Amino acid sequence: MKKFHGIAALVAASFTGAAIATADENAELVINGDIEIVTKTAAPAHLSDALDEVMSGWRFRSDQTQSMQMDDFDNPGMLGAENGAEIWATADGTEGKSCADCHGAPEEMAGVKAVYPKWNEEAGEVRTLQMQVNDCRENRMGAEPWGYDKSDAIDVEALLASVSRGMPVNVAIDGPAQEAWEKGKEIYYTRFGQLELSCANCHEDNYGNMIRADHLSQGQINGFPTYRLKNTKLNGAHSRFKGCIRDTRAETFSPGSPEFVALELYVASRGNGLSVEGPSVRN
Amino acid sequence: MAKGVKPRVKVPKSASAGEVVTLKTLISHKMESGQRKDGDGNLIPRSIINRFTCELNGKMVIDVTLEPAISTNPYLEFDARVDEGGEFKFTWYDDDGSVYEESKPIAVS
User: Fold this and answer.
1) ipTM over 0.90 threshold
2) pTM of this structure
3) Which one, A59, A114, A176, B92, has least CB within 10 Å?
4) Which chain A residue has its CA at the smallest distance from B30's CA?
5) Nearest CA of chain B to the CA of A130: how many Å?
6) Interchain pair B73, A232: CB under 8 A
7) pLDDT tens-digit readout, A103-130
8) A79 part of contact set with chain B, CB < 8 Å
9) pLDDT tens readout for residues A57-94
10) Where would I find the Sulphur oxidation protein SoxZ domain in this sequence (chain B) (predicted)?
11) Phi, psi torsion values for A238, nearest 5 degrees
12) Cβ–Cβ under 8 Å, residues A58 and A40
């Protein structure tokens, strides 16, 4: 009987442990008690064969990590957005212009993050938000372009994401963008590396399960740029793709490469309907 | 002085007498541990916030010693009982001798 009690206690203890480690997948996210964020919604039509519902990575994180994103003061990613706001208002380059000189206050850009990556008719290519910012820097400001996913670029992206929070992600996948979207989809379902894993193997077939100590999410990028507790900085979607592909023990593409631009468009389209959430907090 | 250091605090504007309020503080600081090496193998010298204090009307609320294992942008949240209105004074002490200060008033209704 005594032994039985011991086992019961052990079982109880491990349940408590599990409750701390795993996330509350039914929690609702409201930022600053004001901005309501859609973290779970019906999957977009193009995903109907694969998923019924799409869920933000926020739902897969622990209570503590979730709560950090519910107040801007607690969200370390907002430090990046704050720095981004300073960059936004500072003149740079040979033209002596700042972002604000043409675009006005950052709040004027609300909704922009939600529709990127986006087809650019003049350039004849799909562009990410960072590519568009760099185009402005080179051609309108006469400034040096920023390195992809490097600190200044990511801080401005975080600023632009922060003013779009609560708006639904809505990237166009038809028309001229379709070719890039198809390419991104192909990459998503291609097995890479010595471990022969595709994005879908983890984030479509096994989300919600544990891969060793990691709780697999759907790999949505509506929360990017993301402040990761593991490296205490803002991370771009391309850097995250690179990390994931590296983990399959493959040679990765580079941040900013056409492959990752296509993949970003495809992955963003999988989250059409979720709210823009960046800068988010993840582990 | 370390680059990009900026203290931030969040204090309720008012409280009832005797109420326990929650204070949130964050200082952006790189908190270099002194354990890391640069690309050439030289030790990067330690540069951290080593002490934080909070006073209400000159009376100590909390006095914290911070150690090198504390990560970047240290965030501290704590409670204080407010018996009378006045001013919270927050002070951060940097390894390099810099002292960063911030203060916020609180009214008692």
Assistant:
1) no
2) 0.86
3) A176
4) A232
5) 24
6) yes
7) 999 999 999 999 999 999 999 999 999 9
8) yes
9) 999 999 999 999 999 999 999 999 999 999 999 999 99
10) 10-103
11) -65, -40
12) no
